[in-house]
Amino acid sequence: MVNPVAELRAFVRAALVTPVERDHTEPDWAFRRRRVVSVVTLVVGAAVLAWALRIEPGDPTFYAATFALAGVWAVGALLSGPLHLGRAHTRAGRGSSRAVVQSLALGALLLGLFMAGAVVVAQVPVLRDPVQELLDHARVGSLGLVTVITVVNGIAEELYFRGALYAGVGRRHAVAVTTVVYALVTATAGIPLLVLAAVVVGLVVAFQRRVTGGILGPAITHLTWSLGMLFLLPPVLDRLS
Q1: Continuous segment of H or E residues that includes residue 88
Q2: Residue range 31-58: average pLDDT?
Q3: Helices in the chain by DSSP H: which ranges?
Q4: Would you give the distance in Å from CA 231 to the centre of its chain?
Q5: Would you give the end-to-end CA distance of the chain in angstroms?
Q6: Which of 35, 58, 150, 168 is 20 to 30 A off residue 176, Cα-Cα?
């Protein structure tokens, strides 16, 4: 008989704890170049994000600003140096494969956790109202376009934060530093719960990056969570408010 606790423990260990063997060592000059490009990209990206999130819902400028933000993250990441897709442990534990199914599962677990939290948030106006204002971009504007923006920005963020920045920090403190920086950048939006989400999601995908050695797993996890939140959070908040 399958032991659910043991299965969950094995899944967490494989997905977030035990790294897959690889060698992504690069010369000192490439490492220093990656750091410089990452810092410049971070400064520009944080400024564009602060501008984008303060645009009124329904204003077409929001779409241009968010696509510009994705461009900053993606271009900066690609200019920083080589990025790797990474590999994950297989279910049988006898090899490795691309982190697709494992990442979908992690994203679904994160989504379930946040939807449970939404039940509480819906009852507290001081927490609920800022989130509702952010979601108004999907309600007032084009949901289809916001969906595309969510996908494009999710991928671009992972290219930068768990790709270029993670590699530029160095192995010892990469999980902590990238998570803190991701949360600080998100804080420019002025929404406390969004910062909390950045810490939780950022920490999970950073550990996933540490295990897989690449950005494919974190990107899939991020998109599973963010698209789920986009479509499920508004009706939950509306129904429970």
Answers
A1: strand 88-89
A2: 90
A3: 4-12, 28-52, 61-80, 101-121, 125-140, 143-159, 166-169, 174-186, 192-212, 216-240
A4: 17
A5: 42
A6: 150
**How far apart are alpha carbons 85 and 83 in whole angstroms?**
7
pLDDT at 57: 77
Which of the four pLDDT bands, split at 50, 70 and 90, describes residue 82? very high
| 209 touches 217 (CB < 8 A) | yes
Structure tokens at 23: 């060698």
Which residues contact residue 181 at a Cβ distance below 8 angstroms, ignoring those fewer than 6 apart?
A: 42, 161, 165
Interval 84-138: pLDDT, tens = 999 998 776 667 788 899 999 999 999 999 999 999 988 888 888 888 887 887 7
pTM of the model: 0.93
**Tokens standing for residue 73:** 């993250």
pLDDT of residue 1: 65
Q: Rounded distance, CA 163 to CA 212, Å?
A: 12
